[in-house]
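Quick check before the chapter quiz. The format below is the same one you will see on the exam, so make sure you can read both the input and the output lines.
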Amino acid sequence: MYGREATYSSEVPVEVPNAAHLLCSVVASTLFSGQFRCLTKMKFPVEDMWLCPIVNISAQKILLIDPMGNEGVYDRKILCNWRNILRMRGHEDTMEWQLQTMQHNKQQDSSSCRVLLLKFAEHYLAFGEVSEVLTTTEAVVLERMQIACTLLEHRGNAEEYFIVCSMLDADADRSMIEMVQCDSCQRWAHFECAKYKESNREYKCKKCEENM
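Here is the expected output.
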């Protein structure tokens, strides 16, 4: 979720989905950078609602929420990049897509953006609005504790979440967009780490090949 402060109108209908798909950082970063090369063979999620940013497929709307309240800095860029992605995927009615924002409390420090993004997404899916999300220091501390407890409760083997390198050795000076999606598990890996040459050929990670 990511632009201009806008007044939320209760007259705008919001359909709360039964299931939502969380877009990975690769796709979210691509929306900002405009570098779509790695998305040419990406499998679009089947869910109608995507998160980070919030994309409502059937309603053709993107909901942009920046905890700092800076939506207006890049709202047009996000919408333009999203339309370009759809054109690249063969969609023709891209101009029907719209971007909207919602009124929300602003982040009060420089380190709580991820916590608040999770809370905004959770609140939107549950209630269709985000104006009641608290951003005070006390509220953020409580949310951090709840997230930590949830992670501990559902912890597992970290190796199951990463295909090749876990991005631990990634070069920060190089583009993180050079990634490929496994056709089976739909997780992402660096071109170099996966020994993948730039093309549209199919790619299956080693774990998926071993399980075939």
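If your answer matched, good. The longest strand covers residues 20-22.
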